[in-house]
Amino acid sequence: MRLYDVCAVWALWATSLACGVWSTSATGWEAFERAETIDAPVKRATADQAPLYFHLSSGGNENYFFRDNVTAAQVLFTSSNSTTTARRFVTAMPAGNSGALMYFLPLNASVSNATGPPLDVQLVNSSLPLAHTLETWDNVGVKGQMSFSADAQLGVAIIGAVRAMRDYVEGAGLMHEVFNYTLQSYNSTHFRLHRPWINGTKALTVELETSSNLWFNVTPGNNGTYTPPTVEIRLNNSAQPGIAAWKVVCNETSLVGLETEGLFLANTTSNNTALQTALVGLNSGSSLNAQEVSFLTFANKFTAGGWRFLTYFGRDSLIALRLMMPLLQSDAIEAALGAVLERANSTGALCHEETIGDYASFVNIGNNMSELGNTPYYDYKMIDTDLELLPALAHYFVDLPQGKNRSASFLATNATLQNGTYADLLKRNIDYNLARAAPFAQTPNVTNLIGLREGQPVGNWRDSDEGIGYGHYPFDVNSALVPASLRAIEALSLNGLIPANYSQAAGQYATVWENHSASFFQVSVTAANATSRLQTFVSQANLTSSLLTGSGSLQNFSGSTVSANDSASFYALSLFGDGRPVEVMNSDIGWNLFYGTDVDEDFITHVVRALQPYPRGLLTNVGMLVANPAFDSNDTNVYVLNTGSYHGTVVWSWQQALMAAGIARQLKFCNSSVPSVDINPSPSQPPTWCQNTGLVQGLKNAQMNLWQAINGARSEIFTEVWSYTFDNSTEKFGVADLALVSPTGTESDAIQLWSFTFLALNDPTQSL
Ligand SMILES: *[C@@H]1O[C@H](CO)[C@@H](O)[C@H](O)[C@H]1NC(C)=O
Ligand SMILES: *[C@@H]1O[C@H](CO)[C@@H](O)[C@H](O)[C@H]1NC(C)=O
Ligand SMILES: *[C@@H]1O[C@H](CO)[C@@H](O)[C@H](O)[C@H]1NC(C)=O
Ligand SMILES: *[C@@H]1O[C@H](CO)[C@@H](O)[C@H](O)[C@H]1NC(C)=O
Ligand SMILES: *[C@@H]1O[C@H](CO)[C@@H](O)[C@H](O)[C@H]1NC(C)=O
Ligand SMILES: *[C@@H]1O[C@H](CO)[C@@H](O)[C@H](O)[C@H]1NC(C)=O
Ligand SMILES: *[C@@H]1O[C@H](CO)[C@@H](O)[C@H](O)[C@H]1NC(C)=O
Ligand SMILES: *[C@@H]1O[C@H](CO)[C@@H](O)[C@H](O)[C@H]1NC(C)=O
Ligand SMILES: *[C@@H]1O[C@H](CO)[C@@H](O)[C@H](O)[C@H]1NC(C)=O
Ligand SMILES: *[C@@H]1O[C@H](CO)[C@@H](O)[C@H](O)[C@H]1NC(C)=O
Ligand SMILES: *[C@@H]1O[C@H](CO)[C@@H](O)[C@H](O)[C@H]1NC(C)=O
Ligand SMILES: CC(=O)N[C@H]1CO[C@H](CO)[C@@H](O)[C@@H]1O
Q1: Where is the signal peptide (predicted)?
Q2: 651-652 vs 721-727, strand pairing mode
């Protein structure tokens, strides 16, 4: 789990502070903007005066983030209190997605036998522990000092491509000989590891140099680059730590970061109090969250998250952008939209992940395309990303003040990664999406829904084989994203951004998809079956049947109390190829609320039902789960989608934000005076369900229940994902680190772009 080190961050900018305390009496806004609760924060200096720097303790690592006008890097050291013997040092730079991963081990058994941490390797703290360094051959990077508590030896080192580093840490030690480093130079006071790119043009270098109380005993390997050298780090005086200066440099081109001042709107002159409140501390950078978002965003792309994902991902960019858009400045929004268009393929599909730097050569060789050298490789396997650009782009140019009068110059921009203007690239994506939507619009049957691409087990945000229950047609893509993309084409056409002749087809197609697609996913379970499946589930999942009635694990539950013998009805997670539903209740209905302008009464009823206490619904006292297999007639999903599954009975924070944003948007369609950070023009007619006052009240109650769940794990909301533990005596859930629960132990990210989407929401349980 992530833990902010607010004190460490603030200590840099201010002298006396009251640190790190969450005030329960604080309003939602103060709690979201923790930094704001600190007295008289010193405004962070402007871009060309001071670097962006902050420190977070998270997931067993000390994470340091640094960016200035020369370089950007995330640096990690294994936390002192970690129980692992090997101490890890990681540097990741978005330039070429390159970096270095080194393990340090205790030099001999007597050390690892000692009580207390056998070896501790940490960044040496100072007023600014990291700095940029400029070297020959256009090499730039980051430098600092590290301390060794005891004699150590260098273990595995992966130097160069972050993707090769990921292969090692995620792939149970997978290494590729082609990425071997060389020992470039050494003596007793320094050693330098060098990684020339496969392509031969660029390189990455890591160097450690004696600073005090240590020396190096280096013996080169005896089989060329194949055998690693033996590198011992020896303390002169073992009673004191030894200090080495280190630097990691590369001559890939550094990216230009978006400073908070260039990313977030300053206080607006609009009368939208919800927006003004949300903006407090963002533009000035006095909010730590603003600095975290800033670290992940660049003038030519948004990156997805902490060190393993510090590169372009289409879905992450677009979801984060769409939800945070009301807070962002035009140039920042256009940077993100442009990055997506730049990476479209010639058919109009959008890129999921880019592979750049040294690893691009490796992928091209693997694809028998070595003639491409280090040309970036773009992956188009996902089916949701294609559909997420247009709703974001249309919202910006059609609805938001930031987008007014900006479309002409944006669309006339010449792309830099390929030929064509942004208008050309946009047209390709529009035509691609229309063509893919056409068969179902003509004949709305299962086989005309949009399925995963051939040979791909994944395709939407639930990016794991089991995540969509091994189905073929995901619910979100078909029920929400296709219609949203079609409605966006219609809006762009009606507003003159694209030719007028698009509006009619797009509108007609959208209506068919809206009216028919969700119905294929409808799952109804009789009262008798629902009751018996729930009883079986609580025992299989080691819960108690008392959760099945009343408020479940929530403190209070607004609305009609849950009855133990109701029928159940929800939308399936996905459909198998033959149209059978994967009967797993799930949170993807948030997409429909967030995008739809005419969601029907039946759908809202399903939302109200899904936002009941778990396991009847998705809500726990520590958040909203993204999947609930309790009603599935195939109970293997109880074990496939469990608390250790990446997309199982776990909480993804941004999914909560999406659901909350979606409900707020729908309620505003019924009553335009509802406060809202985002600007969503109401449809000409309120949805018909707005006349059903019982249902409107039901949705309002569901909103309160959702926020009660969100606030139950409020300190987690900016983290990526968490699991739960269940306490049988209190009958409450607790937050659990998914990395510890999960058999694969996927490490959690200290910062993840789309989790910051909570910044653009107001908490209706708090008055503005
Ligand atoms: C970076 O900023 C410093 C001031 O802190 C300035 O002296 C330097 O010229 C800048 N470098 C670049 C490459 O803009
Ligand atoms: C280890 O230390 C970090 C602070 O560096 C702290 O956040 C974390 O809770 C500690 N973990 C344990 C298991 O004590
Ligand atoms: C200490 O190390 C030795 C040699 O590796 C090993 O045999 C012994 O079991 C260790 N003792 C403890 C307490 O870990
Ligand atoms: C080690 O190498 C560095 C860099 O080449 C040099 O400056 C230093 O004098 C050398 N030290 C010794 C002890 O040879
Ligand atoms: C990058 O730096 C390496 C040394 O680390 C050098 O050999 C190489 O020529 C440089 N490449 C460019 C394009 O400057
Ligand atoms: C020496 O390196 C080559 C690859 O360069 C490898 O195939 C061979 O197994 C290595 N020999 C030993 C003894 O490690
Ligand atoms: C933002 O501006 C409005 C007037 O435009 C003002 O009433 C409000 O206090 C300002 N908020 C902040 C946090 O400065
Ligand atoms: C806010 O301003 C808009 C126009 O900018 C106006 O239509 C609306 O009535 C105002 N709302 C309030 C509450 O003053
Ligand atoms: C390096 O990659 C470029 C394409 O980016 C290619 O043209 C060139 O041939 C490659 N060079 C080598 C030595 O592989
Ligand atoms: C673009 O990507 C889509 C989806 O993977 C694929 O169907 C299409 O063939 C690709 N186009 C080209 C020219 O490779
Ligand atoms: C875009 O490129 C075309 C040539 O392909 C050129 O005529 C035009 O001036 C460029 N536009 C901009 C805005 O640079
Ligand atoms: C120096 C170095 O990294 N050597 C590695 C080269 O690749 C082989 C195969 O992956 C490894 O076993 C070596 O350790």
Answers
A1: 1-26
A2: antiparallel
Closest C-alpha among 760, 765, 757 to residue 718: 757
What is the distance of C-alpha 125 from the center of its chain? 29
**449 close to 359: Cβ distance less than 8 angstroms:** no
What local confidence, expressed as pLDDT, does residue 7 receive? 27
Instruction: Give me ligand 4 centre to Cα 189, in Å.
Output: 6
User: Are residues 128 and 233 in contact, defined by beta-carbon separation less than 8 angstroms?
Assistant: no
Q: Is the CB of 276 under 6 A from ligand 7?
A: yes
Dump pLDDT digits (tens) for 544-578. 999 998 999 999 999 876 666 689 999 999 999 99
Element (H, E) at 33: none
Rounded CA separation 133/245 (Å): 12
The 8-class DSSP code of residue 403 comes to G
CB of 456 closer than 6 angstroms to any ligand 10 atom: no
Cα 72 from Cα 127, distance rounded (Å):
18
Closest CA to 612 of 599, 633, 630: 630
C-alpha separations of 100 from 308, 381, 721 in Å? 12, 28, 26
Is the CB of residue 708 less than 8 Å from the CB of residue 30?
no
pLDDT at 564: 60
d(C-alpha 656, C-alpha 624), whole Å: 6
Share of the chain above pLDDT 70, in %: 92
The pLDDT of 434-443, averaged and rounded, is: 98
Ligand 1 centroid distance, CA of 300 (Å): 20
Provide the H-helix boundaries in 596-692: 601-610, 636-640, 653-670
Q: Are 715 and 278 in contact (CB under 8 A)?
A: no
pLDDT band at 47 (very low <50, low <70, confident <90, very high): very low
Instruction: Using the mean position of ligand 5's atoms as its centre, give its distance from the Cα of residue 137 in Å.
Output: 5
CA nearest 544: which of 733, 735, 724?
A: 733
Percentage of the chain modeled with pLDDT above 90:
84
* Nearest atom, ligand 5, residue 138 CA: 14
Residues 48-83: pLDDT tens digits? 557 999 999 988 899 999 999 999 999 999 999 988
Ligand nearest to the CA of 228: 12
H helix runs in 384-481, sequence order: 385-394, 407-412, 422-442, 475
- Closest ligand 6 atom, residue 223 Cα: 1
Nearest partner of 87 among 233, 205, 186, judged by Cα: 233
Ligand 10 midpoint to CA 452 (Å): 13
Question: Beta-strand (E) ranges in 190-241?
Answer: 190-196, 203-212, 214-219, 230-235
Pick the ligand that lies closest to the CA of residue 409: 11
Q: What residue spans define the domains of the chain?
A: 6-250, 534-566+584-760
Distance 597 CA to ligand 8 centre (A): 22
**Coil/strand/helix, residue 497:** coil
Beta strands in 256-325 (DSSP E): 297-298, 301-302
DSSP annotation of 264 reads: B
Q: Mutate which of 44, 67, 69, 134 to test ligand 1's pocket (most atoms within 8 Å of Cβ)?
A: 69
Nearest CA to ligand 11 atom 6: 414
Q: Please tell me the distance from the alpha carbon of residue 125 to that of residue 128, in angstroms, as a whole number.
A: 7
* Binding site membership of 46 for ligand 1 (Cβ less than 6 Å): no
Write the pLDDT tens digit of every residue in 306-352. 999 999 999 999 999 999 999 999 999 999 999 999 999 999 999 99
The two tokens of residue 418 are 């390929």
Instruction: Go through the chain and tell me how many residues it has.
Output: 768
Nearest by Cα to 463 from 451, 474, 455, 454: 474
Structure tokens at 5: 């080190």
Distance (Å, rounded) from C-alpha 463 to C-alpha 45?
39
Helix axes 482-494, 502-516, angle to 10 degrees: 150
Contact call for residues 288 and 4 (beta carbons, < 8 A): yes
Q: 375 CB under 6 A from ligand 9? A: yes
